[in-house]
Amino acid sequence: MNAINETISFIKEQYKTENPIPLHTPYFGGNEKKYLIETIDSTYVSSVGAYVDQFELMMENITQTSKTVAVVNGTAAIQVALRLIGVKTGDEVLTQALTFVATANAIAYQNATPVFLDVDLDTMGLSPKAVEIFLDEFGDLRQDGCYNKKTGKKISACLPMHTFGFPVHLIELIEICNKWKIPVVEDAAESLGSKYKGKSTGSFGKLGTFSFNGNKIVTCGGGGAIVTNDLKLGQKGKYLTTTAKIPHPYEFVHDEMGYNFRMPNLNAALACAQLEQLDDFLQNKRKLANEYKTFFESNGIIFRTETPDTEANYWLMCIELENKSERDLFLKSTNKNNVMTRPIWKLMYRLPMYSNCQRDEQLNAEFLEDRIVNIPSSVR
Ligand SMILES: *Cc1c(COP(=O)(O)O)cnc(C)c1O
């Protein structure tokens, strides 16, 4: 009880307020208004415009990839990335059950089925070991890829998610997936600015996806991005998300079923102004993370920190309580006292639409599900 009260006071001191403290609020301290007004004055508020192009260049620069496609949100980014990598009706995609529902939904939009494998305790993201164990038991390597011995279906992608900005063990995961001819798409929605061995998350897989929703580290109201080092795939992504139109000065010719998943220029203007501040946001959050770390060391609650070889963006910071009842007590007291906290997501196979999907034992995911709580993490 004492540790909880101390935590409440500490968080209120950090944010210097007695008002409700949210988990994560956007911070508009740069050129946001300027760029938005410019955009309105230019009349290019919609699906094409200079800020869309600039946003794509900035993302290529930040993630050190050769092609970025700006899209309407992070969920659409995953859906299109899966289509680009060849996920088709009836296929299966390996992913984690400990994730936000959009990861699983994007798989279902391709009429494919998620297979839920366990996470690592240290990263809270898809475990290379769990993938290896699963494939050793169920993998059937054929000429055209990997099949699931149990279902007979093709496993056409692996979709790890970097939980709260903590990178998964990417090198090991990609090595195993390569061995089994399974392409990797990274759901990096939460990990813009996070690095693994000095390289940006999202740039390791064949494709990576980001979200710029209102609660993410950088927001543009709503938006997403697909990044890749495969120029051809990137160009195909741009084409599919812009109605699959063949370039022509005045005729409308579309030769595939595409999408209108474009990021409006108005949103891109906001995104550019926000991306200019990414380094400041990262520094600001790292400072708060260090303060939390020192504080929690003295009061006996575990504050989750980045793993060796990684740099986390500390998007949503989190603590690990002793057990479920301690967690529930913490959630109740903090929320009652104007400090917003919330538990990690319910595992995907507890949701009705994904309850019949194949999965492994989920020992780590269930451990974390009972104990992990997010605490206020906004840029101050
Ligand atoms: C936010 C988020 C998404 C989806 O992003 P939207 O822009 O809200 O569609 C996908 N996956 C994860 C893990 C997320 O946190």
Which terms would index this structure?
about 40% helix; Aspartate Aminotransferase, domain 2; 2 domains; four-stranded mixed sheet; 12 helices; binds pyridoxal-5'-phosphate; Aspartate Aminotransferase, domain 1; single chain; about 375 residues; globular
Strand content: 15-25%
The value of Rg in angstroms is: 21 Å
For the biggest sheet, the summary is:
5 strands, mixed
Question: Class of the largest domain in CATH?
Answer: Alpha Beta
Average pLDDT for all residues: 97
Count of individual beta strands: 16
- The CA-CA distance between the termini, in Å, is 27 Å
Which geometry do the CA atoms define? Answer: globular
CATH architecture of the largest domain: 3-Layer(aba) Sandwich
The molecules bound to the chains, other than polymers, are: pyridoxal-5'-phosphate
- How many domains make up the 3D coordinates? 2
Any idea of the CATH topology of the largest domain?
A: Aspartate Aminotransferase, domain 2
Strands of the widest sheet, in order across it, are 3-2-6-5-4
Structural class: alpha+beta
Low-confidence stretches: none
Overview of this structure, please?
The strands form 4 sheets. The protein has a 5-stranded mixed β-sheet. It has a 4-stranded mixed β-sheet with strand order 1-11-10-7, sandwiched between helices. A 4-stranded antiparallel β-sheet has the order 12-14-16-15. It has 2 domains: 112 residues, Aspartate Aminotransferase, domain 1 (Alpha-Beta Complex); 245 residues, Type I PLP-dependent aspartate aminotransferase-like (Major domain) (Aspartate Aminotransferase, domain 2), CATH 3.40.640.10. 39% of the residues lie in helices and 16% in strands. The chain is of the alpha+beta class and 380 residues long. It has 12 helices and 16 strands. Bound molecules: pyridoxal-5'-phosphate.
